[in-house]
Amino acid sequence: xxxxxxxxxxxxxxxxxxxxxxxxxxxxxxxxxxxxxxxxxxxxxxxxxxxxxxxxxxxxxxxxxxxxxxxxxxxxxxxxxxxxxxxxxxxxxxxxxxxxxxxxxxxxxxxxxxxxxxxxxxxxxxxxxxxxxxxxxxxxxxxxxxxxxxxxxxxxxxxxxxxxxxxxxxxxxxxxxxxxxxxxxxxxxxxxxxxxxxxxxxxxxxxxxxxxxxxxxxxxxxxxxxxxxxxxxxxxxxxxxxxxxxxxxxxxxxxxxxxxxxxxxxxxxxxxxxxxxxxxxxxxxxxxxxxxxxxxxxxxxxxxxxxxxxxxxxxxxxxxxxxxxxxxxxxxx
Length: 333
Prior knowledge:
single chain
């Protein structure tokens, strides 16, 4: 009797264990690999929110968690210090990140500014050349500073030819309206709005040059070494997201706008001034050598104006084409 009871109990336990195992196997969420990515409020990065909502990451076995940042140096520092796995961040911020035992590595280009950043000016300023001897607002060491340096060089001016007022965008726009400065380096939609409020105009945008205002996905060297398969999957999901932007933009923009609690028209307008980080762009950036060239140009621009007070990296290991090459091969197959 006792033997039959024990056999029955063991049989029941086997059934329960088997059921639990089957349930675990049928629930993909339990098998997803966690991947943490820093992000800020830039439209070129925020389209990744669509990828998460549409399941483009999860179908590749990834549980992507986005960590919000206001300051891009805090973002890339968190990646370098191991608090997260990667950062959506501009090339120039990667070039200026604090020294660490590991190197930062850019593995994908998300977009290139092509009109989203520029300079709003007072009515008496007709061109960038008119800024000589004038006060211009730009937050030192940020993308705004780089946009200004790029514009000055394109117009044969030196950094010391202008007095930089080191303030954030919103403060710069207010100072321009009040007539306290002659120009302000801003991004859309604040740039156009500030020019209108000051009764002036936009005198330069990144569409006027082959800009080095390049937004990227960056990681640290140990993640590249130990988790390259995850990086490749992330990039594949990114390519699918860009494909969705090209084939069904309203759906993508509606998804992102809803998650950000903003009108779809606002997000759509903000995204318009960017060159998308699609397959062709990334091939140009990595295989074509443009990203390495842009990193050298960025370094040259930043070291011409030491007012930012940061050390600029010169290591060529900042660019690694391996993940993008593997993702491209998978995507095309």
